[in-house]
Write a sequence for this structure.
């Protein structure tokens, strides 16, 4: 083969080399500009997981389960009946407190009646004492002149002393009776108030036999079984509110230099693939690494210490509308990319505004109907009518 034949091949190899060089150079330049305008303003990690509130459902009273209305993976609304307990014992206790309240109302009513009766007795004894006094004075004046016998005078004196003693006795009885009802009415008397409180407690315990869902969410870890005997605070199941979810991304400490609260975040989950990109925002950086919060935190005071790069959880709030369309589950892994263009934010969040972050109102009306029930019982057991205001607030002024 001559040199003239090798020349075209040499030119072809040289041209191919230039093409390959140009391609790699272009890739390098493109990569440089991509790093210059994109990569250097991003911090990424795949050490990120979905977290959320886990609401443990527990009973407030003891009892036997007679029905369970839900199972794992079911979605329940706030206020939905989850578990029902046997109500026989609670119903009997409620009826007993009703009877006790009725009895107390009758007893207190009798106390007020006794005050009225003793007032009448005081007035009668005052009249008797006044008459005995007049008779005594009259006979005392006549005994000296012989108008009445000494024996008759002594009888009038004895009647006078007896009338005075009777008046004092009734006045003391009135004071004692007034002390039992002073500054009260039938409705506000301590005995009635105690019975009212017992009735309310019994009614609340009866209502608590029906266990409701405190939040809207998905049922998980159901343990409640029909026929099971449970005590207060026994875990029955968990409700996971799928709208109360966030992501904790564990960034290396060397990545946290420019991460700030308020920076936008893009997230991906394997459950939906790379086509679904969640959008979020950094809302907080943890106060400590996971190793510090562990049961046995590491001690690096040994002679053969080796530095280990630590990771710090960064909390990311997700866009609610995206969560609603593409719900996540607790524990799923996420790929997280934080846009660190804007570093004007803080690393420590501002104090939150006053008020609760999460609330439920399923316990607000557990005593609903108690006031009407109490009012009815009191009205049915008042046996007579009199001026409670005057008798209840009467002052023991009799001497």
């Amino acid at each position: 083969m001559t040199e003239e034949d090798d020349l075209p091949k040499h030119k072809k190899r040289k041209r191919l080399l230039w093409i390959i060089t140009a391609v790699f150079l272009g890739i390098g330049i493109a990569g440089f500009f991509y790093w210059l305008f994109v990569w250097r303003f991003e911090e990424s990690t795949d050490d990120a997981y979905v977290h959320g509130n886990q609401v443990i459902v527990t009973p407030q009273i003891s009892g036997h389960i007679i029905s369970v209305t839900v199972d794992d993976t079911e979605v329940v609304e706030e206020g939905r009946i989850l578990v029902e307990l046997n109500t026989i014992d609670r119903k009997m206790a409620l009826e007993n407190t009703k009877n006790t309240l009725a009895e107390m109302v009758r007893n207190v009513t009798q106390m007020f009646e006794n005050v009225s009766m003793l007032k009448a007795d005081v007035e009668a004894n005052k009249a008797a004492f006044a008459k005995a006094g007049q008779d005594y004075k009259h006979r005392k004046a006549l005994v000296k002149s012989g108008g009445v016998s000494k024996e008759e005078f002594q009888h009038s004196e004895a009647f006078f002393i007896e009338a005075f003693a009777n008046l004092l006795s009734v006045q003391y009885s009135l004071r004692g009776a007034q002390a039992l009802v002073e500054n009260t009415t039938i409705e506000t008397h301590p005995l009635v108030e105690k019975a009212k409180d017992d009735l309310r407690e019994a009614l609340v315990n009866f209502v608590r036999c029906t266990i409701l869902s405190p939040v809207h969410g998905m049922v998980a870890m159901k343990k409640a079984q029909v026929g099971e005997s449970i005590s207060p605070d026994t875990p029955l199941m968990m409700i996971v509110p799928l709208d109360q979810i966030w992501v904790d991304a564990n960034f290396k400490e060397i990545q946290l230099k420019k991460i700030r609260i308020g920076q936008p975040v893009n997230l991906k989950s394997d459950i939906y693939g790379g086509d679904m990109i969640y959008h979020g925002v950094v809302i907080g950086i943890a106060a400590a690494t996971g190793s510090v919060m562990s049961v046995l935190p590491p001690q690096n005071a040994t002679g053969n210490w080796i530095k280990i790069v630590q990771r710090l959880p960064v909390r990311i709030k997700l866009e609610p509308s995206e969560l609603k369309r593409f719900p996540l589950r607790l524990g799923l892994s996420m790929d997280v990319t934080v846009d660190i263009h804007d570093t004007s934010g803080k690393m420590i969040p501002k104090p939150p505004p006053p008020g609760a972050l999460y609330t439920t109102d399923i316990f607000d009306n557990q005593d609903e109907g108690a006031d009407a029930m109490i009012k009815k019982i009191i009205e049915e057991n008042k046996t007579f009518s009199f001026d409670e205001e005057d008798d209840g607030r009467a002052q023991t002024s009799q001497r």
The helical segments are 3-37, 88-143, 150-181, 190-207, 320-325, 370-381, 388-392. The longest helix spans residues 88-143.
